[in-house]
Amino acid sequence: MRVCVIGTGYVGLVTGASLAHAGHHVICVDNNEAKVKLMQSGQSPIFEPGLSDIMQSAIQAKRLEFTTDLAAGVAHGQVLFIAVGTPALPNGESDTRYVEAVARGIGSNLSGGYKVIVNKSTVPIGSGDWVRMIVLDGVAERQKSEAQPILAGVSGDKGITTTALVGEYDFDVVSNPEFLREGSAVYDTFNPDRIVLGSSSDRAIALMQELYAPIVSRQFAEDPSAPTVPVLVTDISSAEMIKYAANAFLATKISFINEVANICDRVGADVMQVAKGIGLDSRIGSKFLQPGLGWGGSCFPKDVSALIHTADDYGYESQLLKAAVSVNQRQRLIVIEKLQQVLKILKGKTVGLLGLTFKPDTDDLRDAPALSMIENLVRLGAKVKAYDPIISQSGMRHGLSDVIVETDAERLADGCDALVLVTEWQQFQTLDFGKMATLMHSPILIDGRNFLDCSALEAAGFRCVGIGR
Q1: pLDDT at 157 over 50
Q2: What are the φ and ψ backbone dihedral angles of 97, each rounded to 5 degrees?
Q3: Cα–Cα dist 410/437, whole Å
Q4: How far out from the chain centre does Cα 286 lie?
Q5: pLDDT in tens, 237-280
Q6: DSSP secondary structure letter of residue 103
Q7: 332-465: CATH homologous superfamily?
Q8: How far apart are CA 176 and CA 133, in angstroms?
Q9: Apex CA 210: angle with CA 209 and CA 212, to 5°?
Q10: HSE of 181 in the Cβ direction (CA atoms, 13 Å)?
């Protein structure tokens, strides 16, 4: 099938490259010329395991193209994905101006032939009808402009109406929310738990099912013999709500176990044993019961805020979700408190952070707990250093003006009064902690993710402090 993906962030680029890898002919559109040139050369502008490989193979097979030409992409695609960002505004509402611009642009460039326009961006509930309206506005604006020379000098001609103009175009809007995790987005695309399609059009649903058939049948799955992927067909609003509800539930689950960890700290229980015990309950499950520094990134914060804002818009106060946000904000200060307990005064001390990104296997710093930690440590007069396997090598320094970014873990440890494990990068488990301890003023390590073996750290000379242990 012919596919156009508009927007090449995490969702758009992974979606486009994966569909091309699955055999479709995909054109990805982005308005950033430098980024498009980079992708045309087979290089990914983001760090995502496996992405560069499938990009390059699909480009070589001539199934994946990149362009800044929206008209060419719209003309090419039977299915048009809108995959641009919807960042949170200061009040928590989703900023949908990029979605609006793309929808209007699609309308301005629509030509004959049936199209399915897919909301892949996470958009507020009710956006399906809104996107349809904006597309039709774009169609009407273009055709009115084209009709002007014909109507010039014709007095009182009412023969051409907006309805007649836009009625020539045949399209449907589908909500197809993504459930990708940064750091495993390619894996998640080919091994999904479910695919959600929201539409009232049988024709659109049939086309989307044809598009996803290779993925549904597990042709590219880690286990091709696994049962077919469940495809849930809903109305548009329910599909939009599923995305928000899923992320809000997972965020709340993390906040819950962090709340339990803080109580464990006070009563002498071990939250890791508690999490294992409750996770064995089939009604609860073990996933997202990892205590630590709280959630961050581009999805959970904005999606939970957007759902709270939607509830407020409709006269309902979402107390549970507001509490989940409050616990998460509070959790980012836990490490500061633990540092104060072991070092007492932080002013004049040097603290080293192991990891900066909000999770491992990504270069994403958006709403990373490390940023809040740096801000508070600097405010309290501490000197902050950091080492991150990706950020240290990439040269990225956005938002890191108050931290010294070291190139390896031993340089990080040199002269530090304490280290904090912020991001659970797998390679941190094999660091030479014995040597690092000898380089520090005081070998103290706060394990903010309960990721390291405290007994091994203590044998290497560290005093190890966990979360809720």
Answers
A1: no
A2: -65, -30
A3: 9
A4: 22
A5: 999 999 999 999 999 999 999 999 999 999 999 999 999 999 99
A6: H
A7: NAD(P)-binding Rossmann-like Domain (3.40.50.720)
A8: 18
A9: 65
A10: 16
Query: How far, in Å, CA of 452 to CA of 467, rounded?
Result: 12
Return the amino acid letter for 406. Answer: E
Q: Per CATH, is 2-233 categorized as 3.40.50.720? A: yes
For 347-409, give the secondary structure using H, E and C.
CCCEEEEECCCCCCCCCCCCCCHHHHHHHHHHHCCCEEEEECCCHHHHCCCCCCCCCEECCCH
Q: Which superfamily does 243-330 belong to? A: N-(1-d-carboxylethyl)-l-norvaline Dehydrogenase; domain 2 (1.10.1040.10)
Active site residue 28: no
Written as six digits, the tokens of 315 are 């006269």
pLDDT tens digits, 321-349:
999 999 999 999 999 999 999 999 999 99
Phi and psi, residue 145, nearest 5°: -65, -40
**Would strands 2-6 and 25-29 be described as parallel, antiparallel, or unpaired?**
parallel
**Residue in 299, 416, 454, 464 annotated catalytic:** 299
The domain spans of the chain are 2-233, 243-330, 332-465
Task: Yes or no: say if 420 and 354 are a contact pair by the CB < 8 Å rule.
Answer: yes
Helix (H) or strand (E) run with residue 56 in it:
helix 51-60
Q: Residue 196, SS3?
A: strand
Q: Which residues contact 412 (CB under 8 A, 6 or more apart)?
A: 352, 353, 354, 385, 386, 387, 406, 419, 436
Where do we find the tokens 């490490």?
A: 335
